[in-house]
Design brief:
Strand order of the largest sheet: 7-6-5-4-8-1-2-3-9
Order of helices and strands: HHHEEEEEHEEHEHE
Radius of gyration: 21 Å
Oligomer: single chain
CATH architecture of the largest domain: Beta Barrel
Strand content: 15-25%
Number of strands: 9
CATH superfamily of the largest domain: L,D-transpeptidase catalytic domain-like
CATH topology of the largest domain: L,D-transpeptidase catalytic domain-like
Distance between the termini: 69 Å
């Protein structure tokens, strides 16, 4: 077999370089080109997102509710993020019963164990939160705004005379993130359209450093600020309300599994 000519090698190298640069721009330069794209194509509404993605997202999600014997749509949901496992669990609640629906992998999240303290520390917050709004024009496909800093965060900052706590913390699509939780496009389509259906007031978000159903969180508070022990106890008490009685690994990814808590 003859070797490729120098012209062919140059063409292949150019093609590879173009592909790599295109991927880099598409993935990491979204703050630059997505606003221009939205300006050219027009902003989307939440209703637009429901029309475009709602049926397919619902078709993917409903079997998990059916397997869990959970009513659909639910009255309320909890999104439980476990930072060290890079996992986001979806739970539903109806008539006092909690149902484990499914788990999503967190594809990107920056920072280490510990709460977010200031703008630019690249930390994912830890605590119990709510959603503020849905963003159908996200730089990262779709996103849901978390109400960080919450009252606890602000109270600790006041005591320590800290300001500029940061914000703009989202659960969003794609697989890149600084301080947010990136869960990929299909997952955010499912959760975004579900939240749009039931209302943001019916959504709780718990972000834990580790799984308090498996581990004591208090050792993780060592060498952190004194109030982190209180925060981790609050998180542990909240997480332990979402107990599963079988191996939830079967419900991660694409295999539905019934899980219910009373």
């Amino acid at each position: 077999m003859s070797k490729p000519s120098s012209h062919t090698r140059r063409w292949l190298l150019s093609a590879v370089a173009l592909a790599l640069s295109s991927y880099t721009v598409y993935t990491y330069a979204r703050p630059l080109w997505v606003p221009l794209y939205r300006q050219a194509t027009g902003a989307r509404s939440v209703q637009d997102v429901q029309r475009i993605y709602g049926d397919k997202a619902q078709a993917r999600l409903k079997p998990f509710f059916e397997s869990a014997k959970a009513p659909y749509p639910p009255k309320s949901i909890t999104l439980l993020a476990i930072k060290d496992e890079k996992k986001l669990e979806l739970w539903s609640e109806d008539n006092g019963e909690r149902y484990f629906i499914r788990s999503y992998p967190i594809k990107a999240a920056s920072g280490i164990t510990g709460p977010k303290l200031k703008q630019g520390d690249e930390q994912v917050p830890e605590g119990i939160y709510r959603l503020e709004y849905l963003n159908p024009n996200s730089l990262y496909h779709l996103s849901m705004k978390i109400n960080y800093p919450n009252e606890f965060d602000r109270e600790q900052a006041r005591k320590e005379n800290r300001s500029n706590l940061g914000g703009d913390i989202f659960i969003h699509g794609k697989a890149v993130s600084i301080g947010c939780l990136a869960i990929g496009d299909p997952a955010i389509e499912e959760l975004f359209t579900l939240v749009a259906q039931i209302g943001i007031k019916n959504v709780k978000v718990i972000i834990a450093p580790s799984d308090a159903r498996k581990h004591d969180l208090q050792p993780l508070a060592t060498n952190q600020r004194p109030w982190v022990k209180t925060l981790y106890q609050t998180i542990a008490d909240a997480v332990q309300q979402y107990q599963v009685f079988e191996n939830i690994a079967a419900a991660e990814g694409s295999t539905p599994l019934m899980q219910k808590c009373h």
